[in-house]
Amino acid sequence: MKEQVKDKLYELFSLEGKVILMTGAAGAIGRVLAKGMAQAGGTMMLCDREKDGLEELRKEILQEGGKGETYVLDVTDLANIEETTEKIIREYGQIDVLVNLAGINKRVALLEGDEETFDRIIDVNLKGTYFMSQAVAKHMKEKQKGSIINVTSYNAVMMLGGNGVYCASKSGVAALTRSQAIEWAKYGIRSNALSPGHISTRLTAQLWEDPMRSKYMLDRIAMARPGKPEDLLGMTILLASDASAYMSGMMYHVDGGCLAGGQPWEIKG
Ligand SMILES: NC(=O)c1ccc[n+]([C@@H]2O[C@H](COP(=O)([O-])OP(=O)(O)OC[C@H]3O[C@@H](n4cnc5c(N)ncnc54)[C@H](O)[C@@H]3O)[C@@H](O)[C@H]2O)c1
C-alpha cells in the first residue's frame, strides 16, 4: 500500500522534468520554497538581485542532491528580464513554471508617501510581475503548457495601516493573475496567486518586533502563531504540479485562518 501511495503522490505532485524560474529566490520565503521545489524534483532557475545569497542557496540545493542554476536578475530591468529568459531557454529549452516572488515594502502613511517610494514598490511588485510573466509566457505559449504562480499577499484584500502602496501593488498582482488566466488559458498556461498571511521574515521583522503590532496580528490569526516560510511549500508545489491541472485564475490564501476572522471572542456559559 505504501508503494501505491508513493506512486500516486509522485504522479500528481512530482516536479521532476520541470524547469522552474523563481524570482526573489534569495529571500527568506524564496530560499525555503526553492529548496522544497528542488527536493520535489524541479530544476531551479534561481533569480535575484543578491548574488551571494543565490550562490549559497544553489550550493545547498546541490548538496541535497537537487538541481539549480543562478541568474543575477533585477525584475525592474526589462532588458535584464529578456536576456535572462532567453539564456534559460537556450540552455534548458523550456520554462515550465514561473514563480514571481520578488517583492519589497516600505511602510509609510498615505499622507506622507513620496513619489520615489511609490514608484519603487510598484516597479518591483507589480511591473516586475507583469513583464517577467510576459517574457516567460511567450515561451510557454510555444509549448502550450505552463504554470505561473504570482505571490501576492493577505494585504491584497485586508489592509494594514501604513501599507497603502504595498497593498495596492499586491491587489494589482491579484487582478493581473486573473487577466493572465483568462488571456492565456488558450495557450495552456495557468496562472494562480499564492497569498501568504503574516509570515515571520525580515520583510515583516519590524512588525513582529513591535509588541502592539505583534499582538494586533496574533489576535487576527485563528491559529495564534506567525506563519513560517515552510507553511507555504505545500500550496506552491500543488500550483506548480500537474495536480492543479484544472486550477487557474484564483488566489489561494495560506494564512492560518486570518481571513476567516482570526481568534474568536471568549464565549462564556
Ligand atoms: N513575509 C511575509 O509575511 C509576506 C506576506 C505576504 C507576502 N509576502 C511576499 O512574499 C515575497 C517574499 O517575501 P520575503 O518575506 O521572503 O521577503 P525578502 O525580503 O526576504 O525576499 C524578497 C527577495 O526579493 C528580492 N528582490 C527585491 N527586489 C528585487 C528586484 N528588483 N529584482 C529581483 N529580486 C528582487 C530581494 O533581494 C529578496 O531576496 C514578497 O513578494 C512578499 O511581498 C511576504
Short description:
The chain has 269 residues and is an alpha/beta fold. Helices cover 46% and strands 14% of the residues.
Please describe the structure with a list of short key phrases separated by commas or semicolons:
Rossmann fold; binds nicotinamide-adenine-dinucleotide; 269 residues; globular; alpha/beta; single chain
Q: Which geometry do the CA atoms define?
A: globular
Low-confidence stretches: none
Please list the strands of the largest sheet in the order they lie side by side: 3-2-1-4-5-6-7
| Helix percent band | 40-55%
Give the end-to-end Cα distance, rounded to a whole number of Å.
Answer: 47 Å
H/E element sequence: HEHEHEHEHEHEHHHE
Number of helices: 9
- Please state the average pLDDT score: 97
Q: Which value, in Å, is the CA radius of gyration?
A: 19 Å
Which distinct ligands sit in these coordinates?
nicotinamide-adenine-dinucleotide
User: Major sheet, described briefly?
Assistant: 7 strands, parallel
Number of domains: 1
The share of residues in extended strands comes to 5-15%
Can you walk me through this structure?
With 269 residues, the protein is an alpha/beta fold. It has one domain: 3-Layer(aba) Sandwich (Rossmann fold), CATH 3.40.50. Helix content is 46%, strand content 14%. The chain contains nine helices and seven strands. A seven-stranded parallel sheet has the order 3-2-1-4-5-6-7, with helices on both faces. Helix 4 packs parallel to helix 5 and helix 5 packs parallel to helix 6. It is globular. The N and C termini lie far apart (47 Å). The relative contact order is 0.13. The site of nicotinamide-adenine-dinucleotide has 28 residues, from helix 2.
